[in-house]
Specification:
Blueprint: H1 8-26, H2 31-38, H3 42-51, H4 56-66, H5 70-77
Helix pairs in contact: 1-4, 2-3
Length: about 80
């Protein structure tokens, strides 16, 4: 049986999407409202969340709208240290 391992990047993307969904729910932010703030359609928001494809500007808007704390932002944006 084949085992699947998430790369560090895939793991971070999954954490970010989960955190976004959770904070959207907690703060009562709908996909429709997020779409309006991002200037895109609701289906496009759904696609971005599913595919975890965000621009820097998207993330700034999402972080602000969903009430991300500085600690949460740093956690999801932190890169893995490379061993030298």
């Amino acid at each position: 049986m084949a085992r699947s391992y998430l790369t560090f990047q895939a793991q971070k993307e999954a954490e970010l999407a989960t955190l976004i969904y959770g904070l959207m729910k907690v703060n009562g932010v709908s996909q429709r409202r997020l779409a309006s703030e991002l200037g895109i359609s609701q289906p496009a928001v759904c696609t971005k969340l599913r595919e975890k494809r965000f621009t820097y500007d998207d993330l700034v808007t999402i972080f602000d709208l969903c009430g991300f704390s500085n600690e949460q932002i740093l956690k999801v944006m932190k890169k893995e240290k490379k061993n030298e």
